[in-house]
Amino acid sequence: MMAPLWQCVLLLTLAAAVSVYADMKLDCRPDFMTLVWTESRFQVDPSLFQLGSCFPTSFTAREVVFTVNLNDCDFKRIVTGHHLMYTNELTFLSSPASHVHTFSHQVVCTYERPKDWYPLVYDPEFHTYGQGDLVFHMGLMNDDFTGPAESTSFPLGSLIPIMASVEQRTHQPLLLLFEECVASTTAELQHSSNLYPIITNKGCLVDSRVSRSKFEPRQKSSELHLSLQAFRFALGKEVFIHCELVAWAPSLLDNTKKACHYKKDHGWELLDNPTYSNLCDCCDTSCKSRRMRSVGSGKLGIRHKAVLGPLTITATS
């Protein structure tokens, strides 16, 4: 348990258009924090606020409240001498109809470092890929995504837990997405390869239309969890899953940068904000692409190809 150094009430400049009308109260407690954003003039959609990867705990027309655990919402923990600092970003994701532009502000809670504190070590056996200052991971996980899978063999119809992540290091906060994923019996894709589509059309989990496959709720914006139902494709043979990962600015979701899965009797749903599931409408037609720009050159996003496998899907007895 950590003793807080202080509790603070801050008047913050969030954006030129709202700075004189908005204030943010930040209450840092031992294991959680409460953030209250209040504005007195401009009417903005409170559902468009995010604290890291978390949406508001509650809101009214004039007030947005986050009460969250410091281990959630993609908080970053920094050790500096005798202090522990938890940092995050409060972001307003402007909609096309909004008169207030997208803005963000840093949120920091600082605590005394306990004498017996030491960093946790978590090093699952992922397939790891470097891309400049970004490091991508993709791996098979156990049932609750708390560690690596103990086996690469999965019975037909069971769920295959897959986790992908990107280490952001010095980059701006990024949202990780699967743009395309296919299963194949070969480690390298060729024109003659027999393929099973899993995710197509710029982030549409098409396999969820015919199975129990789904995206799991995010724990961090830089991670994505996929529960993939084991399919009949290449039953009993070695299977490789080829994916194209996208690290993208969280505020720039559109119908070509998204994570959508199909819910029975409901339709397509956007993982990161179901309110804007209309971004998934193109999943049954064609989601048109725009040219990707590089994070490494200081712009918006970057793609990376990853291959997971081999794994085997076995017939049930």
From TrEMBL:
<dbReference type="GO" id="GO:0032190">
    <property type="term" value="F:acrosin binding"/>
</dbReference>
<dbReference type="GO" id="GO:2000344">
    <property type="term" value="P:positive regulation of acrosome reaction"/>
</dbReference>
<dbReference type="InterPro" id="IPR001507">
    <property type="entry name" value="ZP_dom"/>
</dbReference>
<feature type="signal peptide">
    <location>
        <begin position="1"/>
        <end position="22"/>
    </location>
</feature>
<dbReference type="InterPro" id="IPR042235">
    <property type="entry name" value="ZP-C_dom"/>
</dbReference>
<dbReference type="GO" id="GO:0035803">
    <property type="term" value="P:egg coat formation"/>
</dbReference>
<dbReference type="GO" id="GO:0007339">
    <property type="term" value="P:binding of sperm to zona pellucida"/>
</dbReference>
<dbReference type="Pfam" id="PF23344">
    <property type="entry name" value="ZP-N"/>
</dbReference>
<protein>
    <submittedName>
        <fullName>Zona pellucida sperm-binding protein 3-like</fullName>
    </submittedName>
</protein>
<dbReference type="GO" id="GO:0031012">
    <property type="term" value="C:extracellular matrix"/>
</dbReference>
<dbReference type="Pfam" id="PF00100">
    <property type="entry name" value="Zona_pellucida"/>
</dbReference>
<feature type="domain" description="ZP">
    <location>
        <begin position="27"/>
        <end position="267"/>
    </location>
</feature>
<keyword id="KW-1015">Disulfide bond</keyword>
<dbReference type="InterPro" id="IPR055355">
    <property type="entry name" value="ZP-C"/>
</dbReference>
<dbReference type="InterPro" id="IPR055356">
    <property type="entry name" value="ZP-N"/>
</dbReference>
<keyword id="KW-0732">Signal</keyword>
